[in-house]
Design goal:
Shape: globular
Largest sheet: 6 strands, mixed
Distance between the termini: 25 Å
Number of strands: 6
Strand order of the largest sheet: 2-5-1-6-3-4
Oligomer: single chain
Order of helices and strands: HEHEHEHEHEE
Number of domains: 1
CATH architecture: 3-Layer(aba) Sandwich
CATH topology: RbsD-like fold
Radius of gyration: 13 Å
CATH superfamily: RbsD-like domain
Length: 134
């Protein structure tokens, strides 16, 4: 156990976040996302919503100032999971992008680690890009 670390952040996940460099990304996905097919490493967190996981990760991972995060575009009205993920990312609105589903999948292949949530809401997927640790 570590003091000051969000309890959702396991040693395995912290190891992978620490190994990431500036510009690398971590995927936080809903339960529907094909994480095993696309990501190099998958950490499962069943029973936890994607926005809660993203918020926990953001307590230790500084986000890039130009592109902090990219969300999957629900192609229509904003899905509840997308709105929750926006609130979980401590970044200016203009630093949070949107990608159509296939482009998001293509970009997600770059993720150093994927954290698959138990979130059953659709479009609950975000790529968080690591910034510089000052």
């Amino acid at each position: 156990m570590l003091a000051g670390i969000h309890p959702l952040l396991t040693g395995t996940l912290l190891h992978h976040l620490d190994a990431m460099g500036h510009g690398d990304c971590v995927l936080v996905s809903d339960a529907h996302f094909p994480a095993e097919r696309l990501a190099q490493v998958v950490v499962d967190m069943p029973g936890v919503d994607a926005d809660v996981i993203a918020g926990a990760i953001c307590t230790v991972l500084p986000l890039d100032t130009l592109t902090a995060a990219v969300l999957m575009d629900p192609e229509g009205a904003e899905a509840p999971a997308v709105a929750a993920l926006r609130r979980a990312c401590p970044a200016p609105t203009d630093a949070i992008g949107m990608l159509p589903r296939q482009a998001f999948y293509d970009t997600a292949r770059r993720a150093r680690v994927a954290v698959r949530s138990g979130d059953r809401r659709t479009f609950g997927n975000v790529l968080l890009f690591k910034g510089v640790v000052a």
